[in-house]
Structures are given as structure tokens and as C-alpha cells.
Amino acid sequence: MKFGTCNEYFEGWKIEDVFSYAADIGYEGVEIAPFTLADSVDDIPETRRHQIRGAAEKAGVDIIGLHWLLIKPEGLYTNHVDNEIRNRTRDYFQSLVRFCGDLGGKVMIIGSPKQRNVLDGWDYGETWERTKSVFGDCLDLAAENDVTLCIEPLSSQQTNFIQTAEEARKMVAEIDHPNFQTMVDVCSGSTEEIPVPQLLRDSGGHLHHVHVNDANLRGPGFGDTDFVSVLRTLQDVGYERYVSVEVFDFKPDPRSIAAASLAYLRGILAVL
Question: Which residues on adjacent β-strands are paired with residue 30?
């Protein structure tokens, strides 16, 4: 497995500086939240895309891909009953796919809980089908750009739609496309009745990404979540893709979070 870090907790940092710091302390990749670069990726010109990709290459880190996809621009909603809103969201997803491909990223993590909730009066089954349609319309483009969309199951505290890894795998099976897969977020997974290591095993070959974060919303090693069993399971199943540090509590500071989380994870691997 390879270790990466997400960039949004480096608040106020230039992306070039995130690449450099991540490389200096031993990360192999950086996962980008597009809203940290612009309100809309459509506003990022080709020249700037080349600069970002070149900066990562110069620093010696991969651009893993994108996450936190729909925070900006405002008004997007994956499965809205309004066709105009849904089509606008589909079009922006396609822009994100192109942007991810331009940066050399390989995965797009579909979280965005507030842009996928089933609202009052909506039928869950119809919402499910609308969601599949939006993602399905992006997959030929994703294949052209060598990008895999990964549906992220999120806790009931965050969303009422696709709250379990089992539901995520069901959507993967129904869409049935090599560029649509799933991932596991340890913090959200910790809220399920099934232990996180079993969620990882159950995901099988559809597991294309992992977010590591403590149940207390901080980084690995900053709480009581059992990451030994998580990393052991990933080793046991032969997982070779990225494991990204993602936090929701940005204290004490980005340097400390990034360095301590990576040291903790590598310390576990050293004794497995």
C-alpha cells in the first residue's frame, strides 16, 4: 500500500507547498479537494493544470485524485428530482473527470453527503436510479481519462443515502463498470455494526481507495481507533493502492497532523 494525504487541512497553503512538505516527510501522494484551488474547476485554465501537475512531479509525489467534489460551486445535487439541477451536476462531474485526468489523478471519491441526501417526499428507489444515471453518464469519459469513480459510504450522521459499505457495493454491482468502484473511510466505517477490517475484506476487488481517520475525526494515532487491524487486513488482502490521511478536526496544525499520522501508520507497518 501507499500513503497519501488530503490537502484541505493545509488551510491557506499553496498546493505547491503541500506537495513539497508531503514529499519531505515521506508521503507518496496528495489527494486534492478541488474547492481549495477554485470555486469551479472550469475556471482553472489548461496552463494552471499543467503547472499543478508539474509541481507534483517536481516534488516527487503523485496526485492521487480528487475528493470533497461538490462543496463548490453552489447549487449542485447528485440525485435531485429537478432535471436541470441534476443535469448541471452531471456536467460538473464530467468537468471534474477531465480535471482529474489533466492532473494525472486516478480516483475521484464520491462523498458529498449534503449533495446526495434523500429529501422529504422523495422515493428512495427513484433516488437510487437517478444517482446511477448521473454516474453512468460519466463513465465513458472516466475510462478515456483513466479515472475511477469511487462511491463512498458515509455515516448516518452525515447522510441518509448509502450509509453502509454493503449499499455501496450494491451500487457498484448494478452499475457494473470497471471505472465505478468503492472505497472505505475508516471513520464512517467505524459507525457500522460490521468491523472495519471485515468491510475491507468484503469490498474485495472493488476496493480502490481507503481514507484513514480516527472515529474522533482526527488523524490516525490521535485517538483510539484500531489501525493495526486495518493495516493488517489491507496487507492480508494484498491491497496496493493508496491509503490517504483525511481529517475533519484540523487541530493542532497541518504539519503536526501530517507528520504524526504518517509516522504512526509507518510504525504499525514496521511491526506487522
Answer: 5, 63
